[in-house]
Amino acid sequence: MANAQIAHDHKASTTASSGEADFRPPVEVAAAAEKGLKLREQFRRGGTTIGIARARDLKHRKSLSEKTVKRMVSYFARHSVDKRAENFGNDENPSAGYIAWLLWGGDAGQKWAEQHKAAIEKAKQSKMRRVKQH
Predict the structure, then answer these.
(1) Rounded alpha-carbon distances, angstroms, from residue 103 to 6, 63, 88, 114
(2) How do residues 29-55 score in pLDDT, each as one tens digit?
């Protein structure tokens, strides 16, 4: 049963009401977001109100919309430069950028969001091919 749940957690699902794909972040992403929230509380820096809201959703492993997954990919693309900052990755005196990165799910969040964005795009391409064939 546990393996089935883990497999389900990493797959896309479609909500019946909207037909829009949504995704539930894996445990590693939730853990990074939770760590970011704790560091932000402790050091009083890093992240915006949007980043804090994203972290809360990730921490609670709420299903995210396609739009939110794409926003995550955009965030990581814009902020990968933050990884070069002094104290990025330092839990004793973390940079604001490190805390913000964690709020968005950290490295695990980046990988997960990129994989799901690619899956979304592939599914859309497949759907377009089917429509053109008819």
Answers:
(1) 23, 16, 13, 16
(2) 999 999 999 999 999 999 999 999 999
